[in-house]
């Protein structure tokens, strides 16, 4: 007598995937809210970013109420004092609400609101990360594609250039770039040293990030160039430029998107590291790394000015973690083989 033996498939574990989905959605929501808040308040935070709200250089801990009244804040005490323009009636409510939030994260050693420096600093760090990733993608895709399509000695020579650049000490390269380019770039931008430092920082960060991208794209193009549809295009008389733009580049969008999502937090971390060492963003321009460096300088064994280092480092950690979660989600979505 035969028995009916039925096998049931094991249930697919969804707890891990639901947890990843929740973390990704939370990360996207967090970055979106931070970006919208920073952009919406940018006209006022830029005006108050470097305003000294106290009569003398003193640090104030976070408070629920502002240190000074808005009337005193908008009234100059000395002929050379930097003050905020008197708000118009249309913006009065917004200015007063922002002034009420000026002490939520405390004040630094110059009496400047840490919150009003942290919001534009977040935008500057995020903008540097996105710009550096864009430059790295453009240069890396072009360099890797040309090397793979050219082949032979050209490919070997171009890859040796990548190897040489990989072997250079990163911090020493940044210092040499800063020494060599600061004066000519400052003169080029009409004496704006802040813009010159920003350009040097972008060149330094993107000058390292594109190397890995070039190797990844070269391997992908070498694999794609042997595919039948590429051979068919060549047989039809298409040139390498047409093949690169119409056939190869669309098939590279997955790796490019994944790498871009992973390069942005890496670039933000490099900016924070360089600013922490004092060779990145220069004061008074804020960034997450610059604010963290200022917080470390304010910490001593006698008085704990904890808010000057906790809030910038917390913003930096949250930004990096959120971007890494988003990058992992894009990698799993565009490369199913990587999902575990």
Shape: elongated
Main pleated-sheet profile: none
Q: Which fold does the CATH topology of the domain at 114-338 refer to?
A: MetI-like fold
Strand content: under 5%
Helix content, binned percent: 55-70%
The topology string of helices and strands comes to HHHHHHHHHHHHH
CATH superfamily of the domain at 114-338: MetI-like
End-to-end distance: 43 Å
> How many beta-strand segments?
0
Instruction: Output the CATH class name of the domain at 114-338.
Output: Mainly Alpha
Helix vs. strand class: mainly alpha
Summarize model confidence as the mean pLDDT. Answer: 79
CATH architecture of the domain at 114-338: Orthogonal Bundle
Spans of at least 5 consecutive residues whose pLDDT stays below 50 are 6-12, 76-83, 86-90
Q: Helical stretch count?
A: 13
Rg, rounded, reads 26 Å
Explained architecture:
This protein has helices at residues 15-40, 42-48, 70-73, 92-100, 114-150, 152-167, 170-188, 193-224, 228-235, 240-251, 253-277, 288-298, 307-334. The chain is mainly alpha-helical. 30% of the residues are buried. The protein contains 13 helices and no strands. Helix content is 69%, strand content 0%. The chain has a domain at 114-338: MetI-like fold (Orthogonal Bundle). Residues 6-12, 76-83 and 86-90 have low confidence and may be disordered.
């Amino acid at each position: 007598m035969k028995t009916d033996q039925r096998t049931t498939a094991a249930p697919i574990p969804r707890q891990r995937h639901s947890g990843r989905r929740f973390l990704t959605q939370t990360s996207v929501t967090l970055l979106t809210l931070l970006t919208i808040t920073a952009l919406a308040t940018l006209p006022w935070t830029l005006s108050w970013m470097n305003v000294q709200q106290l009569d003398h250089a003193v640090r104030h801990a976070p408070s629920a109420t502002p240190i000074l009244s808005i009337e005193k804040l908008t009234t100059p005490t000395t002929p050379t004092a930097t003050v905020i323009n008197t708000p118009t009636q249309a913006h009065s409510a917004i200015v007063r609400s922002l002034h009420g939030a000026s002490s939520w994260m405390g004040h630094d050693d110059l009496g400047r609101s840490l919150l009003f420096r942290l919001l534009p600093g977040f935008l500057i760090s995020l903008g540097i990360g996105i710009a550096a990733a864009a430059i790295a993608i453009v240069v890396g895709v072009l360099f890797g594609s040309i090397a793979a399509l050219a082949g032979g000695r050209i490919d070997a020579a171009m890859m040796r250039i990548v190897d040489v650049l990989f072997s250079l000490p990163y911090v020493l390269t940044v210092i040499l770039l800063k020494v060599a380019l600061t004066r000519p770039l400052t003169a080029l931008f009409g004496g704006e040293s802040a813009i010159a430092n920003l350009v040097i920082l972008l060149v330094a960060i993107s000058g390292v990030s594109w190397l890995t991208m070039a190797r990844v794209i070269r391997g992908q193009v070498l694999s794609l160039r042997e595919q039948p549809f590429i051979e068919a295009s060549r047989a039809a008389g298409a040139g390498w430029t047409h093949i690169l733009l119409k056939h190869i580049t669309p098939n590279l969008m997955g790796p490019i998107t994944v790498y871009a999502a992973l390069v942005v937090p890496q670039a933000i971390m490099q900016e924070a590291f360089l600013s922490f060492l004092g060779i990145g963003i220069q004061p008074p321009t804020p960034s997450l790394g610059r604010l963290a460096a200022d917080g470390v300088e304010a910490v001593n064994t006698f008085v704990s000015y904890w808010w000057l280092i906790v809030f910038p480092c917390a913003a930096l950690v949250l930004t990096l973690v959120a971007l890494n979660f988003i990058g992992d989600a894009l990698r799993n979505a565009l490369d199913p083989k990587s999902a575990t």
